[in-house]
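quick one, two chains, predict together pls
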Amino acid sequence: MYLRAYTIEGVLDEVGVSAIPGEKLTVLVGDTVRVRLSVDYMGPDMDGAVWVAIGEKDTWFNEYFASRTPVHFDASSDFVSYDIIADVVIGDRPGTNYDMYAKIMEVTGPDIFTPNYLNVLDVIGAAEFRNFKVDGYEKV
Amino acid sequence: MADSDITINAPDSAKAGDFIGASVWVKNSASYECAFHVVTFLNGALEDDSGIVFLSPGQKTNTPIYFEMPAFDATIDVEVYGVVFDPALPPDEWLDNAAGHVVSLAAAPPPPEPQFRGFAVKEYKKG
């Protein structure tokens, strides 16, 4: 009989460190979630920003963690694809089944929203131990 | 005065709001005095007229033109009327003998209104 020790990082490695919409990612408090987005744009040269929020969607979207990333779109008369990377720092709010959405803001016209992505993130809090004791001892 | 004696240097196109400079060179290759004037039209309406310019035999002159393209669908026509100067005729009748040379400038269309499509999350991972 032997004891196998698991670390939280080891557990996270087993559940995966990247996900696509529809899959769930598990991270620790203090981690950064890197979100990759894409959009096609045509129109005049324009600056804006991408807002990514993680939280819980009920009647409203309650944003717990969020980030703002400046973006620039070049003038084009045809659609051009852009990949956007946004980093969201996960604060001290452990929980499960967090939701996510993103929007393009600070551009001409209304904000542009992604769908709401539901149950995409679990956040594990700081490591805690409890009930550490000797349950028995024997000759081996 | 033949058309080959008239040269108009102007860009092929322009955007709305661009300031355009064009130059109209006219050389009198005839052995007698000639007169011409440069007329510009904005969307077919008279915009400017240089007035009548006289040229001695062999003389070459430049008439500069400056204008701002007012809108994307604007067209500027530059026409040069050259006439044989006949002092026996009144100026109105000189135009009856006009030799026109036309160049048009059409402003390029402006960029389209901002449009986005397919905005979506592709992936998220532990950074």
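The helical segments of chain A are 8-15.
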